[in-house]
Every structure is written in C-alpha cells, then in structure tokens.
Amino acid sequence: MTDSDAIAEAARCLECGCQANTQCDLRDYATEYQVDYREINTEERKMFPVDKSSEFIVFDANRCISCGSCVHACQTESVHGILNFSESSHRPSFPDGATMGDSNCVQCGACVQVCPTGALTDKRDKSHSRVEMLTPVKTICTYCGVGCRVELYVDAANNKIRYVKGDKTSPVNQGMLCVKGRFGFDFIHSEERLTTPLIRKSGELVPASWDETVSYVADKLNKIKSMYGSDSLAGFSSAKTTNEDNYAFQKLFRREIGTNNIDHCARLCHSSTVTGLEASFGSGAMTNDIPSIAHSDVIFIIGSDTSAAHPIIASHIKQAVTKARA
Ligand code: SF4
Ligand code: SF4
Ligand code: SF4
C-alpha cells in the first residue's frame, strides 16, 4: 500500500460502520493531518472499553476528539448535569466512573446529536451523519404537549425513519429532545403493528376488511341507539390523533348519533388546570410562551413533576435557574 493509499484508507472511514460518512471530524482530521493508521498500534487505537450499557446510546471513547460538545449539551443546554470531562483520560465521563447505563443519564441523546465523530452514536442505527442518503422531514413530536419540533431523517427508498434530531430553529426545544422524541419512533416500523381491523368472532380476533368493519360497527351502534336512545352511547377520543380526526369524531357523535357524550383524554387529565385557568384567565390554555421562561423572575410550579412529564420545559427552567445563579 502506498502512502497515498494509506491516507485514502484513513480518510474513507475509521471502522465506525457508518460508511460513506460525510460528517465526521475524526475522519476529517485524520485526512488533514495525513494520519497513517499503520503508525498507530492497535492497543493505542482501542485504549478505552466501548460502553454499550445504556438502552439507546453507544459511547466509544476511542473515537472521541475531546471537543467538549457533548459535555456542553448535557451540562448547559439540556442541564442534565451527567457528563463531565475526566481529568485523567481527557474524555467525557460519567459520575464516579459509572457506565452510561449505571449513571443517572436520561438518554435524551443531546450528546449524540452534537458529537462530530462516531464516539456517541445511536445504538440501533449507525447511519447518523449519512445525510446525503436521507431526506429530512420536519414535524412535531407526538408524545406530549410541549410540541418539540423534530427532524426525521427518512430513508425514502426503504420508507423508514432512520433517526431523529431536534430542530435547532424551534423556539420550543432549540434542538433539544427527550428520550421519547429522540428514540421513541421505532414503533412506526414495528412488525407487531395492526395493519388490518380485527373483529372478535367466536372468541377469536379475526382480520377483517374495512368495509366489513365499518358496517359491523355501524350496525352495532344503530341497534344500541334504537333500543336505548342516543345518550346510551358515548365516544372517547385521544390526544394522539390529529385535530382533524378529533373534529370528525365529535361530529359523528353529535350530529349522526345525536349525543353530547363525547370526551377526550386531554380534558380529563387536565380538567383541574383547565377549570382553574378558565376561571382566572378566561381560557384553559397556556398563558405564556416557552421562551419567556428564560426571562422570568419567579417560576412557580404546582402539581407538576416537570422533569418527568415535560422534560424540555424542565430544561428551560433549569437553564433559567443556572443563569440567575451565575
Ligand atoms: S443522553 Fe442526555 S443525559 Fe445522557 S449523557 Fe447524553 S446529554 Fe447527558
Ligand atoms: S462530542 Fe463526541 S468527540 Fe466531542 S468530546 Fe463528546 S464524545 Fe468526544
Ligand atoms: S418534551 Fe419529549 S415528548 Fe414532549 S414534545 Fe418534546 S420531545 Fe416530545
């Protein structure tokens, strides 16, 4: 192998598995400094054990260039306070020398999003950085009411979401996501998803066509309505469906079935706040925008475990507290 071959080899990929990687600072520096991998012995290249102890993230300190981006994301942006630089290894480390899985890491993946090499990667898919092969699609996380904007990186040829990034331009999440928004979309491709309606026949759930299912449900509803009246029926909808679906569902119950027995999970779990806000402000809605948290003198939280329920709001609050203390 000639010197130029060796440099080309180093430039191609440093065995991360993310072939055709176009966004790796480790690879770029190796090229810039004309690193000949034959001059680095295998022991030196693999000084640190690869940490695969956590659910969603692999940490390979051997690929770390000590840029500090992950520590900044964990300490200053998402304010989880987990990652610090180790004085001995000059690599990010977890408190008391713990592995990622044994630490209090919440698997938000902010560190993965900012890591410019293959040191911190999504455990399930190493295609992060293969941006040239994927189509970014912006949408809103469907898990909670915070409304973080996500960028789905879609493998159009295989109709698959390969990974998710937080959108930095969103004033709501400023690039941050919680574990659900970042790693919680693999259900879309689950083999266990229902792809056809099921009707229980003789105690067994049997696949059925949509035509058969709609006729079956309409028949059952009509029979109950004619025997016991419209108000014997009730519909319960979900915040996980779209506004349009919820609109159509309440029309079905109010206009076609003729009852106001229609409800929604968001009204139930938020009924106390809706009642209080409506009485105080005239509307059961959020009274301030999320960026205002950073400019608040007082943040009064009642009846909320914000870090667990709405982690990105919690990060904004923790940022504000850190700023006030500085
Ligand atoms: S996943 Fe989140 S909490 Fe865990 S180390 Fe990375 S930034 Fe910190
Ligand atoms: S962001 Fe990646 S390369 Fe930079 S210090 Fe963290 S692990 Fe190392
Ligand atoms: S806080 Fe988490 S679950 Fe809620 S919208 Fe943001 S990423 Fe999704």
What does this structure look like?
The protein is α+β, with helices and mostly antiparallel strands. It has four domains: 1-46, no CATH class; 47-189, 2-Layer Sandwich (Alpha-Beta Plaits); 198-266, no CATH class; 283-325. Helix content is 34%, strand content 13%. The protein has a three-stranded antiparallel sheet with strand order 5-6-7. The chain has a two-stranded antiparallel ribbon with strand order 1-4. Helix 1 (3-12) runs antiparallel to helix 2. The protein is globular, with a radius of gyration of 26 Å. The termini are far apart. Residues 6-12 have low confidence and may be disordered. Residues 64-70, 92, 114-117, 119-120 line the site of one iron/sulfur cluster. This is NAD-dependent formate dehydrogenase alpha subunit. Keywords: Iron, Iron-sulfur, Metal-binding.
What keyword list fits this structure?
three-stranded antiparallel β-sheet; Alpha-Beta Plaits; metal-binding; alpha+beta; binds iron/sulfur cluster; NAD-dependent formate dehydrogenase alpha subunit; globular; 4Fe4S_Fe_S_CS; 34% helix; 12 helices; 4 domains; 326 residues; iron-sulfur
